[in-house]
Design goal:
The chain contains 17 helices and 15 strands. It has about 475 residues and is α/β, with parallel strands linked by helices. The protein folds into 2 domains: about 150 residues, Aspartate Aminotransferase, domain 1 (Alpha-Beta Complex), CATH 3.90.1150.10; about 240 residues, Aspartate Aminotransferase, domain 2, CATH 3.40.640. The strands form 3 sheets. Strands 4-10-9-8-7-5-6 form a 7-stranded mixed β-sheet, sandwiched between helices. Strands 1-2-3-13 form a 4-stranded mixed β-sheet. The protein has a 4-stranded antiparallel β-sheet with strand order 11-12-15-14, covered by helices on one side. It is globular, with a radius of gyration of 30 Å.
Length: about 475
């Protein structure tokens, strides 16, 4: 029967009848597509009474927008209100205090040249950029600052972010993806933790500044890679470190990290928020401090909110690395760009750093001077205190020791309140419940270049006095 049908089609349409049949079928299919509507399932009619409806509404509870932390996980303390500009001196809760709590390393917050640059920038650009960099948020001020940063550090290119925290938190997931491996110090700052979380990569924590432990992890992974070379070929590996760690104030051993980079074929990301404008003869950071080529660091990341007295952050490296972020850095692509006048402020700060090299030298002297004074108080009470910071670090972390958390909190509050009463503003370090690495409770004292020896001595002596009172009470 089929053979007869084919013979009949050949008589009607000729030898090339196959394509005609296909075309007829397609026309029929298109007709069916446009004329046939999908059948929607019939919804059952609601027979609920008004009382039953109201009961369902009353019983419904929306899910919380944020995790429901236990009360003991949330730290509550009295409000500390700052009035005026946060320079070397602030009005804290109505009292004039020396400001040892702000990241004002080079004392730029009230520098006259930066204030003038800010005023001129506002007159020219206004106070906002009105859009992300990739749309209509790029101004000449951004391009000028990126060029100046790259030239200052000694790399090919730099890229600006509008928020300091988001810089490293966006840079990490821009490169490291699911299946990749990140080696990170267990005392890494919260911004790094958030970047690692966003990357969804495998994480290998190594003990704080312990290069032997890090190398053991790299060797173990190298053994695994040899067992499965096909998977190893597509797995990228990263080391993420801070030049000066926020949580401890220690300086990372950068030469060893660079050695591991080439030996074990990993990429190196260095967070330099606390070291840019601090370490090195001209303030270029850890690469200048250790006399290594900045090109050996795959990505240098830093905030403009510390040494330079501005807002935002930047990443610096080769053109190949930096260009990737212009389409992959979430904080770059989806956030309004840095206000142009703040870019002019940061650019002016770099120029002042070059013109006033004594500012950097004075900062180093202040760091070592306050360290020498504080360490005496710490060493007198080894069962109560521990200072982890490097002498040249402007971030001084003093940990409080003890087995009972409530006693530690009480001691820290006493120190902070006593210092405030006698005109010294210092910080009680706090952590959010999702910060899983920073476990030690401490106070933080930050140093600025324009503090005099008298100011530093007052801070150290005030701290010493309250510590001795706490020790006696115990």
């Amino acid at each position: 029967m089929l053979k007869s049908l084919l013979i009949l089609c050949e008589e009607w349409f000729g030898p090339g009848y196959y394509h005609i049949i296909i075309e007829i079928g397609l026309v029929f299919a298109v007709y069916q597509l446009f004329t046939t509507r999908p059948k929607r399932p019939k919804t059952a009619s609601s027979n609920l009474s008004e009382k039953e409806r109201q009961q369902l509404i009353d019983d419904w509870k929306p899910e919380p927008l944020t995790p429901d932390y236990e009360n003991e996980d949330l730290e509550t303390e009295r409000t500390r209100t700052v009035e005026g500009s946060p320079g070397l001196e602030i009005i804290l809760n109505g009292k004039k205090c020396l400001n040892f709590g702000s990241f004002n390393f080079l004392s730029f917050l009230n520098h006259e040249d930066l204030r003038t640059a800010a005023k001129d920038g506002i007159r020219k650009y206004g106070v906002g950029s009105c859009g992300p960099r990739g749309f209509f948020g790029t101004f000449d001020a951004h391009l000028d600052l990126e060029k100046k940063l790259a030239e200052f550090i000694g790399v090919e290119e730099a890229i600006l972010y509008s928020y300091g925290f988001a810089t490293i938190a966006s840079a990490i997931p821009a490169y490291s993806k699911t299946g990749d491996i990140i080696y990170v110090d267990e005392e890494a700052c919260f911004a790094i933790q958030q970047g690692i979380k966003a990357s969804k990569s495998k994480v290998r924590y190594y003990r704080h500044n312990d290069m032997d432990h890090l190398e053991s992890l790299l060797i173990a992974q190298d053994v695994e890679d040899k067992k499965n070379p096909k998977a190893a070929k597509v797995t990228r590996k990263f080391i993420v470190a801070e030049a000066i760690y926020m949580n401890t104030g220690q300086i990372c051993p950068l030469p060893r990290l660079i050695e591991f980079k080439y030996k074990y074929k990993v990429r190196l990301f260095l967070e330099e928020s606390n070291s840019f404008g601090v370490l090195g003869e001209s303030g270029k950071g850890a690469s200048e401090y250790f006399n290594v080529d900045p090109v050996d660091i795959d990505l240098i990341v830093a905030e403009l909110e510390r040494s330079l007295g501005s807002i935002g952050g930047f990443c610096a490296g080769t053109t190949f690395v930096i260009d990737h972020q212009r389409l992959s850095g979430a904080g770059y692509c989806f956030s309004a760009s840095l206000p142009p006048y703040l870019a002019r402020v940061a650019e002016t700060a770099i120029e002042v750093m070059k013109k006033e090299p004594n500012r950097l030298r004075q900062l180093k002297e202040n760091c070592t001077f306050i360290h020498s004074l504080l360490i005496k108080s710490v060493q007198n009470y080894p069962n109560l205190l521990k200072m982890t910071s490097h002498p040249e670090s402007p971030v001084k972390q003093i940990q409080f020791l003890g087995s009972r958390p409530e006693e530690i909190d009480e001691a820290i509050d006493k120190v902070v309140n006593y210092c405030e009463e006698y005109g010294i503003a210092i910080i009680k370090t706090k952590k959010v419940p999702s910060d899983h690495t920073f476990q030690n409770k401490s106070i933080r004292i930050t140093v600025a270049s324009d503090f005099t020896n008298s100011d530093i001595s007052k801070c150290a002596s005030t701290f010493k006095e309250i510590i001795s009172q706490i020790a006696i009470s115990k």
